[in-house]
Each structure stands twice: as structure tokens, then as C-alpha cells.
Amino acid sequence: MMLLTPGASRRRSSFAAGPPLGKKRPLGGKQAGASLRSVGAFFAARLAPLMLAAFCGAGSAQTLEFEQSSVKPGGIPFPFLELDVPYVKTADGVVERMLDLAGVNEEDYLIDLGSGDGRIPIAAVRDRKARYGFGVEIVPDLVDKARESAREAGVGDRVRFEVQDLFETDISSATVLTMYLLPDVNMKLRPRILSELAPGTRVVSHAFDMGEWESDESDHRDGASLYLWIVPANIEGEWNVDIDGEPHRLSLRQTFQRLQGTLERNGRELLVEAGAMRGTDVHFLVRDGAEATQYIGRVAGDSIIGLSMDSKHRQWRASRDAGKVVSTGAEGG
Ligand SMILES: C[S@@+](CC[C@H](N)C(=O)[O-])C[C@H]1O[C@@H](n2cnc3c(N)ncnc32)[C@H](O)[C@@H]1O
């Protein structure tokens, strides 16, 4: 089976031989010294996919087949394109599990970043009846192949593929985002995922995590690690809380989906425990002596509608102090 490993770095999949042919986007060192690259370095770049293919075993034909392409996106001959991630397919069984993890359904707009032959958006629409699938891919041959496969699968009207740099793709409409990239690429995308995707959007990554942003769920299928994150609403700040008509102050700090803070009650500061977000759903526990109260609510911008509060069915709701909305600390990557 062919797998991506953290060692399959960008450089391995880089075929660039000179700066004028490189992509417009500054590539963080990938281009450095490219104009002076020796013949040896050029061959190293050419040999890299072969080595990767040899390392990965079965399925390597795809890597080589597309390496030979002469298609020119934006006038750049494909052999000179710099890939941030080499082309390796997700096995069909793993695609299924990714869609299961994300709970893809007919309301979803799925975007696959680095869509390869298009199998993930096509499966989402064909098998899960997703509303729409969109794949962005830098290699034109792969985009052509994906479009053809979509037509063959009878979903050409609800799946779109574009030759595009995934770092420049507008991801804000996605309700599900899928990725089979590399660790540094995931990390580079993380701040955008947190700030541009609506709370509740599901993000599934094949093989690689997103550092200290712990996944909400994970799984293994056919030797592949899979991770699911639910984009959390930003709930950090100072809140006025109404509990059965009595005013309280809630002060929250947020790191990704985890919450810490205090609830001021009768002049005492009580610790917020086990605080967590799942999309727009919030829950935390507050202990006052022997009494432990579970708060469950739903966030809508600067309001929280309390859904339940312990077995006594007390009511609670909260509103955030105007102008006190602060960063969760996570967006900065
Ligand atoms: C590991 S493959 C995953 C393919 C597909 N998503 C799958 O799971 O079968 C990564 C894909 O990202 C594409 N890619 C690499 N750099 C890219 C970039 N900057 N923008 C868009 N696609 C890119 C590669 O050409 C490759 O097809």
C-alpha cells in the first residue's frame, strides 16, 4: 500500500529547476537557491518521486504517470511545478471511513484540498448524496482525470474540480473539509481553518494531525490514521450569565475546543471545569462545595442559549460583553 509519511517532504515532490518557472506564491525556502541548482540537484528532484514510489510500493504508477505530463498550467510546464504534497491516493475503504467520520450527508458542501483524482468529492456526492463537492488540485492532468471520473459517476453537475493552489482556495463555504496532505501543510492551514470555517464545520485529515489542536475523534482504517475536528465557536471573553433570573459573571479562556475560567457566584469565584466546545455546543461543570452543576448550551455569536443545567431543569443564558470578544489564541497557529 502506498502511504504518505512525514518524511515525504515538499522538496521530494519539487520538480522546479529555476525561479522564472516557479509559482507566484513565495514558497518558504523551496525556491531558495533554485537558480543555482546544479545538474545533480535537478536529478535529485527527478529521482525523488522515483524514490518515493519505490519506498511506497504498489500504486506508484500514478506518481510517475503524472510526472511525465507536459500540461502547462498558467504557462508552467508540469515537471517544473512545485508540489506541497506528492500525489498519493487515499484507498477507497479509507475514503469511506473519512466520510463516515465526518458524517457526510445531503446538506454538506465538501471541499477536498489537494484532490488528486477526485475520489473524495465524487464519493461524497455519489455515495452520501452530499449537496456539492469541490476539489482543488495543482496538477492539471489530475483535474482533467477527476472531471472525467465525475462525469462517468453521473455527478458531474454537483462536483467541481479546479486547478488551484490550495493555499489560495476560499474554504469558507465548506461544511466538510478533507485533507490528505503533510504535517507542515496542515499546520499552515490551521489558522485559516479556525478563523474562516463556520463553527461546526467538520475537518477530516488522513494520516496527519494538527499539532496541539487535539482531534475530537480519531480512527484507524487499513493502516491509515484518520482525525476529525469540529471547528469550535469562539467563546472566549467575559459573559453576563442569567441563572434562574439571578445575574452571574462568567470569564472564559479558550484554547482550541478547551475552555477554562471562572463563574462568579454570590461573590465567590468558582472554577469552570471540563469545559469544552463541539462546534457551537458548549458544556462545562462548576462545583460549589458538594454541589456539581453541569452547564450545557448552544452558542450563537455573543449569546449562549442554555439547553440544560443539572437535573433540576434550571434555566440559564448568557451574553458576551460588547467589545470584549478576544481571540481564542488558536488562530495564530
Ligand atoms: C496525497 S495527495 C491526496 C489526493 C486525494 N486527496 C486523495 O486523498 O486521494 C495530495 C494532492 O495534493 C496535490 N497538491 C500538492 N500541492 C498542492 C497545492 N499547492 N495546491 C493544490 N494541490 C496540491 C498533489 O498534486 C496531490 O494530488
UniProtKB/TrEMBL annotation:
<dbReference type="GO" id="GO:0032259">
    <property type="term" value="P:methylation"/>
</dbReference>
<feature type="domain" description="Methyltransferase">
    <location>
        <begin position="110"/>
        <end position="170"/>
    </location>
</feature>
<keyword id="KW-0808">Transferase</keyword>
<keyword id="KW-0949">S-adenosyl-L-methionine</keyword>
<dbReference type="InterPro" id="IPR026170">
    <property type="entry name" value="FAM173A/B"/>
</dbReference>
<dbReference type="InterPro" id="IPR025714">
    <property type="entry name" value="Methyltranfer_dom"/>
</dbReference>
<dbReference type="Pfam" id="PF13847">
    <property type="entry name" value="Methyltransf_31"/>
</dbReference>
<dbReference type="InterPro" id="IPR029063">
    <property type="entry name" value="SAM-dependent_MTases_sf"/>
</dbReference>
<feature type="region of interest" description="Disordered">
    <location>
        <begin position="1"/>
        <end position="29"/>
    </location>
</feature>
<keyword id="KW-0489">Methyltransferase</keyword>
<dbReference type="GO" id="GO:0016279">
    <property type="term" value="F:protein-lysine N-methyltransferase activity"/>
</dbReference>
<protein>
    <recommendedName>
        <fullName>Methyltransferase domain-containing protein</fullName>
    </recommendedName>
</protein>
